[in-house]
Amino acid sequence: MSSILLKIENQIATITLNRPEVFNSFNREMALRLQSILDDCENNADVRAIVLTGNGKAFCAGQDLKEVTSPDSNPGFKKILEEHYNPIITRIRNIKKPIIGAINGVAAGAGANIALACDVVVAHEKVSFIQAFSLIGLIPDSAGTYFLPRLIGFQKAQALAMLGDKISAGEAEKMGMIYKMIPLENFDEEVNKLAVKLANMPTKALGMIKELFNKSMTNDLESQLALESKLQIEAAQSEDYKEGVAAFIEKRKPNFKGN
Fold first, then answer.
1. Per-residue pLDDT tens for 40-53?
2. Is residue 231 within 8 Å of 189, Cβ to Cβ?
């Protein structure tokens, strides 16, 4: 069985982590396959929104500890970080298409930080997030120390990283860690509605918004204003902008094509 499933339908690519027997924890094969699938989604013009989710009870429990404790298959932490997790995070942030993190179960360790790197993160009411690294003598990776303090503040983020507290989806929503908590019975339906909405929006503009928020992490004010000006001029030349304005004037729903 494939460690990751891909379904493309209605311009939405659904990527499902598929090692439910080990709570979708990552081994080398799975990490490399996710990178390949993300590349395919980026280059596929028929994909205008991406959903990243998990199969079974967990979204992702992080690293498969059996792999790192096996003398035969252990890639070593240098390879795991430089060839597995860092490239996954980089791809998630650099793909100029919206990525929904549809968190279907516990997200722990690297799994939690992969979830938080997505553009729009939703979780159902039974989900929990755990910065589990310190509980086994490690430190947060997969950009956890980058995104978490920017999402919820320095003090709260550092405490969660040190203490390894389990955070419910409701708590995560209140502290700004995720976009929204969704009732379990409506989860799949609401994720699909969100994906359909994003897939039918002006894809090029969404990609520019993503680029701007990425750069805002490190830019000063003047640099950010300059980049906004540059990308706004580019956005104003797009076919979707012309369609959006025409639809507004004609009082109809716009039919965006993503270009």
1. 999 999 999 999 99
2. no
